[in-house]
Design brief:
The complex is a heterodimer. Chain A is 77% helix and 0% strand. Chain A is mainly α. Chain B has one domain (6-17, 27-272): P-loop containing nucleotide triphosphate hydrolases (Rossmann fold), CATH 3.40.50. The radius of gyration of chain B is 19 Å and the shape is globular. The chains are: A mainly alpha, B alpha/beta.
């Protein structure tokens, strides 16, 4: 009796085990599937339109086939540069404050606010900058677009910087302070240097995130079919151009939108690969 | 940053010269008077009065949580890194009050170096960079001066012969015992007057421990050394004076031979003979 019930139990445990591992495996596949689908779709529809002209030519006038998106690619890079000027210093310094200086109560508030900001829909940033900058200076501009993206970057970089700085073992801070090194020098030369790969990783991830944003640019950078000659003028951006082309009635523009999406996703994919390589080296050393 | 801080270079060079023979070294390095330390509400050290002799090794022994580490950390104001600490009483280094409001803790720490329980060479730096980083961050940039200090510090830490061809390799590539000697070299590079050691051998094997003990013996000719140890035999081997702490109080202090052979307090005897702790 005892033996047979034990055998049954054993059998049932095996079944449960197989069930659990199958369900989790299928779920894991479902995680990978969208990325594979997106890439497959983009390749099928966009690969044929990714050519030399796409990277070197301006858009052609409506009705003419051909042309490229060079202004949008350069525009996106300009916007990311502007966003970095705002987002990186504030985000990194804020993260350092959180990890090294802030009293617990202030930190609690800062973290809470940063987490809320990270959850704010990106179009909200567009509206806020529209109200604050575009209306006041009476025009869409690269500055406004860069500001919107930069504001999105701040809380992202803040939190990742804080986390990697907290990972630096306290022994290094103590060792430096015990040599009579000033607090700020210890933080800059020892702590931040030790955490530098992690900080750079956080910055790259934030750039990859805002590089694909469309909504905050709709009423700030606005888009432009030509070169942008002044940062106080509207500027093209890859996601905006994709949006405009995708909702247009022209087949040629649709093809270019696919190509643009393929280029954008490939770029973001590459940034993520770089981040992987950086973090792999990071775990191989210390932090 | 570009201008070397002359005071550091001058002070180190001054220290590097042999002391004038006419002036005898002061016998006392530290005079601790009625020292009490609180972490928030918790009193970690109660009313400790103790003199620490120059050019000698003073060992602090006692069971875990008795305040040994807190005590040596207050000798270079490192305990202040814990928030909400409070101190009463006085700590005099060569007659100067370390806790006077005009004294910068960073200056105290340049005069009183420290080696920690866990060796902690900076992971982003080579062996050579680790040794001179204290000088460099304190404003010394003259490469010739730094190279001199590099070799001298590594020689004093008995590490030069083992690493002289690998100075560019990461400090973390060394063995545990070598890393600890690297940390000693790093502390010596800024030419402190005192070297505090917080259980420097507790993570090392017996051979590496023997090397550090030998080193401590040699270093005491030039430095005053205060070391915390859990290892009674080690205290007996390396120290000239021993202080026994229990529950934040100094129970007994005296020459090591007396503490180990003829302690006046019952608690000291019980601890040394292994009846508790």
């Amino acid at each position: 009796m005892m033996n047979s019930s034990r055998a049954d139990n054993h059998h049932w445990r095996k079944v449960k085990n197989v069930l659990a591992s199958t369900t989790t495996f299928v779920s894991a596949l479902l995680v990978i599937a969208p990325l594979a689908l997106v890439f497959f779709h983009l390749l099928v529809n966009g690969a044929s339109s990714v050519n030399w002209a796409f990277f070197t030519h301006l858009p052609k006038p409506v009705g003419e086939a051909g042309g490229g998106m060079v202004n949008a690619i350069v525009g996106s890079l300009e916007l990311l540069a502007l966003a970095s000027i705002i987002g990186i210093p504030i985000g990194v310094l804020g993260g350092v404050y959180l990890a090294e200086y802030g009293p617990a109560r202030v930190n609690w508030v800062l973290r809470f606010v940063a987490d809320v900001l990270n959850g704010v829909p990106s179009i909200t940033w567009g509206v806020v900058v529209y109200g604050l900058v575009v209306l006041r200076f009476k025009g869409f501009s690269a500055y406004a677009g860069g500001l919107a993206l930069g504001l999105i970057m701040i809380p992202l970089i803040l939190r990742t910087t804080e986390e990697v700085i907290l990972l630096v073992p306290n022994g290094y801070r103590e060792a430096a302070l015990a040599l009579g090194v000033a607090r700020w020098k210890t933080i800059v030369h020892i702590v931040m240097k030790t955490a530098s790969k992690g900080i750079i990783t956080g910055i790259l991830l934030a750039l990859a995130r805002v590089g694909g944003e469309t909504a905050p640019l709709l009423f700030t950078a606005f888009g432009n079919r030509f070169w942008n000659h002044s940062l106080s003028q509207p500027i093209a951006a890859l996601p905006l151009q994709i949006f405009t082309y995708a909702i247009s009635p022209y087949d040629d523009w649709h093809r270019q939108a696919w190509a643009g999406a393929l280029v954008l996703v490939t770029g973001i994919f590459c940034v993520n690969v770089i981040v992987r390589i950086l973090t792999r080296q990071r775990t191989a050393s210390v932090v | 940053m570009a201008n070397p801080d002359p005071t550091v270079v001058e002070r180190v060079e001054r220290r590097a010269e042999p002391p004038p023979t006419a002036e005898p070294a002061p016998p006392l390095t530290f005079a601790v008077k009625n020292l009490s330390i609180w972490y928030g509400q918790k009193r970690a050290i109660s009313d400790v009065t103790l003199d620490i002799a120059s050019n000698a090794v003073t060992a602090i022994i006692g069971p875990s949580g008795c305040g040994k580490s807190t005590f040596i950390r207050c000798l270079n104001r490192m305990h202040e890194l814990v928030p909400k600490t409070r101190i009463e009483g006085r700590v005099l280094l060569q007659g100067q009050d370390l806790y006077s409001s005009t004294i910068d803790p960073a200056i105290v720490r340049r005069r009183v170096g420290m080696v920690f329980q866990k060796s902690n060479p900076f992971p982003t730096m080579s062996i050579g960079e680790n040794v001179v980083i204290g000088l460099r961050l304190n404003g010394a940039h003259n490469q010739k001066f730094l190279n001199e200090r590099l070799e001298k510090s590594l020689r004093m830490a008995a590490l030069w012969d083992e690493v002289k061809d690998d100075l560019h390799k990461p400090g973390t590539s060394l063995s545990g015992g070598q890393q600890q000697r690297l940390c000693i070299a790093r502390a010596l590079a800024v030419q402190p007057e005192v070297l505090l050691m917080d259980e420097p051998c507790s993570a090392l094997d017996p051979i590496a421990t023997a090397k550090i003990e030998e080193l401590i013996y040699e270093l005491k000719t030039q430095y005053t050394i205060v070391t915390v140890t859990h290892n009674m035999q080690q205290a007996g081997r390396i120290s000239d004076y021993t202080a026994f702490f229990y529950l934040g109080k100094l129970i007994e202090f005296g020459p090591t031979t007396k503490i180990f052979t003829n302690p006046s307090e019952r608690q000291t005897e019980d601890y040394i003979t292994g009846r508790f702790g």
